[in-house]
Amino acid sequence: MGILSKRIVVLPGDGIGPEVCSEAVRVLRAVSSRFGHEFEFDYQLMGACAIDATGSPLPDATLEACRRADAVLLGAIGDPKYDNDPTAKVRPEQGLLGLRKALGLYANIRPITAYDQLLEHSPLKAERIQGTDILIFRELTGGIYFGEKGRSEDRTWAYDHCTYSRDEILRIAHRAFKAAETRRHQFTLVDKANVLETSRLWRETVQSIAPEYPSVALDYLFVDNAAMQIILNPKQFDVILTENMFGDIISDEASVIAGSLGLLPSASVGDGAALFEPIHGSYPQAKGKGIANPIATILSAALLLDHFNLQEEADCVRDAVQHALDQGVVTPELNPATLYSTEQVGNFIAYSVLDIADCEVHRNNIKLGMSTII
Ligand SMILES: NC(=O)C1=CN([C@@H]2O[C@H](COP(=O)(O)OP(=O)(O)OC[C@H]3O[C@@H](n4cnc5c(N)ncnc54)[C@H](O)[C@@H]3O)[C@@H](O)[C@H]2O)C=CC1
Ligand SMILES: CC(C)CC(=O)C(=O)O
Ligand SMILES: [Mg+2]
User: How does it assemble (predicted)?
Assistant: First the structure.
């Protein structure tokens, strides 16, 4: 692959979003410096910060910039002042949901990995989780998050409609089957087909195309059982396909296998645009404290590089993350005794992308209380 020139829209968002995004951008700058690519970063507003600045959680300028970008990198959105005000008419989440819909990002792909370096810190038994490698396909632009919602006039009852069409299921199901063909050929549809009509449509639709993928073994699991099985025996899973809300919940749950919500990246894709985001939210309690783990966003940047077909560059970022874990350069939720901040972990990974030897020097500098910034 030759030298590339790409425009990346960055949506830092709220809470820890700006902190973890700066580290991912630092790592992308290290990639461009090492491999000679030109990445232009265009910062835009979305979420609570956008409401504060413009009155809208997804300003037109942001949407336009995202439409024109080669890729979008998102931190996270959300702020307690809206979470704690159920009557707020304009909400940060409307920005994110609106962007996903407007860009047609119907598939959110969430890899779940157990890291050998973190097994001893896990509340789960090491032998149960070691080697876990799951790819969750979460439908992202349909279901209950996008259905009609409302309240009665006296505000004593409320509703959220869940709807799915066969076409919405087909397009993500084909993607998930194709991924299973390149992996371990196991495919689990997670639903609640014993109760929900939408889930019965999911089963019927997935069953109808399964014969097109004869090498893939199709299995079904009700979501309540799936939530338990993921913790009890995660290694039984390869590709999981599920609808929007179930995917949201079981992937946060699966982060316990990795060791922290701050480790899990994702790619949100459709037929054109692509957005890369950690699976976590804005973790407002950690804002400004320098304790947020930037690795989920840095690994999302690696997925962004995959999207540009920059395989060596993406692998270089993943190797640098492994190197940080090997060396114990992690944020406090992974090791309460750690000395490392969000910025220091990001810096270490960026240095490691540039050159492993420099990275060792940098690590010693951190120990001496000196911070070297790229
Ligand atoms: N994609 C997005 O932008 C998302 C936004 N949200 C929003 O975020 C706000 C907070 O929601 P919560 O339910 O508290 O979810 P959250 O994902 O922000 O945090 C939940 C817990 O996960 C851990 N955590 C999350 N990110 C971490 C990181 N980078 N490093 C270390 N630990 C981390 C912390 O223990 C935290 O208390 C809300 O306003 C919510 O709507 C929630 C999920 C996704
Ligand atoms: C607005 C929410 C649906 C965000 C969220 O929890 C997620 O995408 O994981
Ligand atoms: Mg979520």
Answer: Homodimer.
Annotated binding site for substrate: 100, 110, 138, 224
Token pair listed for 105:
């990002």
Which domains, from first to last, does the chain contain? 1-121+260-374 (3.40.718.10), 123-258 (3.40.718.10)
In 3D, which of 296, 292, 288 has the Cα closest to residue 321? 296
Question: How many CB atoms neighbour CB 271 within 10 A?
Answer: 10
Percent of the chain topping pLDDT 90: 91
Query: Above 80 in pLDDT, residue 287?
Result: yes
The neighbouring-strand residues paired with 136 are: 110, 240
Give the distance from CA 268 to its chain's centroid: 8
The annotation places the binding site for Mg(2+) at 224, 248, 252
Choice among 2-6, 158-162, 267-271 with the minimum mean pLDDT: 2-6
DSSP state string for 146-197? TS-EEE-TTSS-EEE-----HHHHHHHHHHHHHHHHTTTSEEEEEE-TTT-H
Once rounded to an integer, what is the mean pLDDT over residues 16-44? Answer: 97
Check: CB of residue 142 under 8 Å from CB of residue 262.
no
Reported as a single tens digit per residue, the pLDDT across 32-83 is 999 999 999 999 999 999 999 999 999 999 999 999 999 999 999 999 999 9
Decide if 37 contacts 4 (C-beta within 8 A).
yes
Q: Is the pLDDT of residue 122 over 50?
A: yes
Helix (H) or strand (E) holding 25: helix 17-35
Tokens representing residue 49 in the block: 């910060």
Does 293 contact ligand 1 (Cβ within 6 A)? yes
Residue 248 annotated as catalytic: yes
Which single residue is written with the structure tokens 């009609």? 148
Residue 10 has pLDDT above 70, yes or no: yes
Give the active site residue among 14, 191, 238, 248.
248
